[in-house]
Structure formats: C-alpha cells, structure tokens
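Two entries, shown back to back:
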Amino acid sequence: MLTLSPKYITDNKGKKISVVLPIKDFNAIIEDLEDIRLYDEAKKSNEPSVPIDQAFKMIEAKRKSK
C-alpha cells in the first residue's frame, strides 16, 4: 500500500485547492491507475480467465519456442 505525504496549497480562506506530491508518489499513483484501467478493460472483454500458474507456463513455453 502506498503511503502518501501530500502538501496542500490553500486559498486565502484556507480551502485546499491543489496538492503537491513527490514525483515518486505521483508516478506510483499513475501506475496503479493504469493497472486498474487494464483490469477494467479485461473484465469487460468477458474472455475466459486462466489460472496464474497456467498463464506462467504458457508464457514460458512461448519464450522457449522463440
């Protein structure tokens, strides 16, 4: 789990209007969002799933055949 350390920019009334994050945190969030987008895309496709062990075996077999 990502632990963030945001800094806030506020207006004259103290209302938070922007967030400043270390680039490392920002990049981690972007990577997580991409993973979520890919997951959502895969779920929409309704293609049958493959157990992870079987998927790894398929990948290794494909690598060896090249």
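entry 2 starts here
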Amino acid sequence: MRGHCSRSCQSSSTLSVSEQPLAFYVHLPWCVQKCPYCDFNSHGLRGELPEARYLEALLGDIAEEASRAPGRRVASVFIGGGTPSLFSADAVGRILAAIDHHCGLGAEAEITLEANPGTAEAARFAGYRAVGVNRLSIGVQSLDDERLARLGRIHSAQEAAGAFAMARDAGFDNVNLDLMFGLPDQSVDAALAELQAAVDMAPEHLSWYQLTLEPNTRFAAEPPTGLPDDDALAEMQDCGVELLEQAGFARYEVSAYATPKRQCRHNLNYWRFGDYLAVGAGAHGKLTLDTGEIERRWKHRHPNTFLGSALKTAEASRIAPAQLPFEFMLNALRVTRGVEAELYPLATAQPITQLDTVWRTLVARGLVEPLPSGRLCCTPLGYRWLNDVVAAFLPE
C-alpha cells in the first residue's frame, strides 16, 4: 500500500457522506496454532483449512456489505486474522475482485495482507503481489529464537529475515514488521538490539508495541515469569522511540512508526473516525448513514457460526450522541499530532461545542492543546497518560 494519505483522506466541511473515504476489512480467522498472548478472534486449525467454503461465505458477505454504501469507492483494504497467508493467492485475488466489482478499488488503493514468516506462507508472497496486494504486514514479534518459543511462535528469527527477503524479491516496496518489547526475561539492551535488527532490515513501517496480558488469553491465566518491571518498560519505550527517530522512522500513533509518506492509510482512517465495511467471522464495521447517524455492525464471531448462518451479521447498533465524544477521541487522540478540529463535526454530525467543558478541563491540566491550535491533540504529557485523557470523555 502507499503509505501517504491521498487528497480524498483530507477532511473538508464540504464532503458529503458518499465522498468520504471508505475502507474495507476482511477477517480470515485461522492460524496454525493460537499464540498464548493473542486476544484476536483467531482459531487454531483442526484439520484442513476450509478455504473454499469460507471464501464462498465471504463473497456473499462482501456483496451484502457493499450494498450498504452505494457509490462509495474503497480507498484501502486490510486482510487480517488469524493468519491470512494460510489462504492461497487465488482466494485472496477473488476477495479483492469481489470488492472491486461491488464497490470499486481505485488505482491508488492501499491493499494490506497480514502474513506470518513461516516458509510455507512466505512462498506465496509473489502470488499475493500478482493479484493486487501492495503492502505486507509480517508478524515477526521477536528476533530472538528463545523468546519466540516462549511466545508460542512457530517460526525462527532466521525465517523472519528470510520472509522479509522474500517479500522484497516478490516486488513489495511497502512492508510493515510487527515487533514486541517487554518480553519475558528481556533486558533493555536486548529489546533495543532486537529493534535495531528490525530497523537494519529497512522496512517502510514498524509496529512496535509492548507485550500485554490481555483477558481471556492463556498468558492472562498463566502469566509468564520474568516480565520486565515498569521502570525497564519505560526505558525500553523511551530509548526505542529515540532509536527509531534517529533511523528515520516518525512515530505517528501510539505504536506505529513510518518512514516518510509510508503511514498506514487504512489505520489512519480508523483513527480519523472514518467509515469501514467489514466481512468475515467476528469482523466489526462502522458506517455513517445518510441521516448522519453512525452504525456499528458485528459479524458472528466463531467461524463455524459464521459459516452456518444465512445472515452473517450478529448485531447492529447506532452510536448514541452522548457516546460520540468518547468514541471519536478513543481513535483520534492515538495519533501523535491529533486530528483537525473540523473533522469532529464532519465525522460525527455533532457540534464541536459538545466538547467544550471536558476540553477546557483537560487544557487546564496540561493534557491537551487549546482549541485555537486548530487541532484536537494531546500535549506530550497527555499522550503519556492517554487512557486517562480518553476516559474523560465517557458519558456520565
């Protein structure tokens, strides 16, 4: 994918709903095995991958979702999981062709596919490039074999480097590497050494984030030993950000770092409270209706339920006006520079005066920039305490 925002991504008070950017998320839920830290809707394979059956269900789901946004072209597609690279290039090509048929994919559309570094998946990279994928996101997670084993990963550090080389050989000039820090028995120096090794590969984008023990994961029930303390985590974060900036990566979101003009457009659309259709087991979408109301829809979460249901949508609901400030800020304030103040009324159909009371309180505490700046943006202090800033917008 091309990492910079096109002109259509820029906010403008003159844009109608039909002219606003639209993204498309596709969820492919299976992995070879479930990682103990993962809280995504992913499921370890038991037997053969039901590619043909799931593809048939997806194609119907794509047609249904597209009918809800007539006339809106898709600016980005993100195929996530799970491990999407378990699916064949032919299946991915048919998914993209269906989106193009029903919605239209612009020539500059950013099309990302998540992939694992295993040799079997990496061998398919050229096929994915041939069917239109133009950005890969490779789940490296660590570049140390011992830590990879403790994370339950089934690839090696050598395979990770090999997968990146295969991506280049396949013609990908826009690659993200996912890398974690704060791993069991990981020192500050070790974390920075792994980050430097990732930087040395010269990807266009890095997603670098702390291992957290999420509810309903095996690590939450059985925490690994040797996790770094808060002081070590803070030092990893601060030194890592400095290392990345010196290497030419700009931090533009909590855990996202990009070389110039290589920010992830699909994720920026999320953070700018943009609309996105979503298909596949457990996928969640958001769409602004012609009335100005915002609707969220969830698909049946378990793959078997999704496959067995004639109606793929499990639930749909409208966002209450009182909830909109929190919903908007939960996304927008993740971006290091925030968003243009004029985006709030455009994206929510609510007056920006709705934010006045809370915003003034946060300004007084030094957590956000004053509105005359023209941006809804945290200060460096506020960015450090982002969860508290966002929570201030929860309805009473």
